[in-house]
Write a structure and sequence with these properties.
about 200 residues; 4-stranded parallel β-sheet; two-stranded antiparallel ribbon
């Protein structure tokens, strides 16, 4: 299986950080960019995002992990992951399934992380031994903190877990766009850096 990856090199201390991300939507079309905020475009975007299953995410991650030793820029060692919206669900599943390799996870404005399913991602949180940060916005009505009480409580019960609700922040507070909330984003990335520095040094 071939999986395209985006690579970013970010400065984080004397050794730096190597960041890779599989293209989670490669099965659908080469690349998708929203052309407008029309109902058709929004429905297309949600169809693409919600049509990507956790089995597909796991398959892509397995391909990435198999390829990574061939990348000369990757030095090995512990890894961390960060996800937004439904990507935060993938973070929880990654920590659940690869907790020895992924020692830090960050989920911002998480979606579908606390469900009634027997394999709901939040149920695995008590087994995590690494670091986990979860950030919600108090104004998020799409995936409100009130619907994720079990995830918040499980995260805060971890020895190295932290869940926060950012006052006035809406869904999408951590990414550039109409939902960006500077204070919530800054606080979340500061906490993420603390965890990554601690676990990945």
């Amino acid at each position: 299986m071939q999986t395209r990856t985006e690579e970013i090199t970010a400065s984080s201390g004397p050794m730096g950080a190597h960041v890779v991300r599989p293209d989670g939507y490669h099965r659908s079309e080469p690349w998708y960019t929203m052309q407008s905020r029309s109902d058709d475009e929004i429905n297309k975007m949600f169809g693409l995002v919600l049509g990507t299953t956790e089995d597909q995410v796991a398959e892509d991650l397995a391909a990435l992990l198999a390829w990574l030793p061939e990348d000369p820029a990757a030095r090995g060692g512990a890894m961390g992951c960060i996800g937004y919206c439904i990507g935060a669900r993938s973070v929880l599943c990654t920590l659940r399934d690869h907790g020895e390799e992924f020692r830090a996870g960050v989920g911002l404005h998480p979606s579908f992380c606390t469900t009634d399913d027997v394999d709901s991602p939040h149920l695995a949180v008590p087994s995590y031994t690494g670091s986990l940060y979860i950030g919600f916005g108090s104004a998020d009505t799409m995936q409100p903190a009130s619907a994720n009480t079990a995830l918040i409580e499980a995260t805060n019960a971890l020895a190295k877990g932290e869940a926060e609700i950012h006052d006035g922040a809406d869904h999408g507070f951590g990414v550039y766009g109409p939902g960006l909330h500077e204070a919530a984003a800054t606080r979340s990335y500061e906490r993420a850096k603390v965890m990554f520095d601690r676990e990945l040094a």
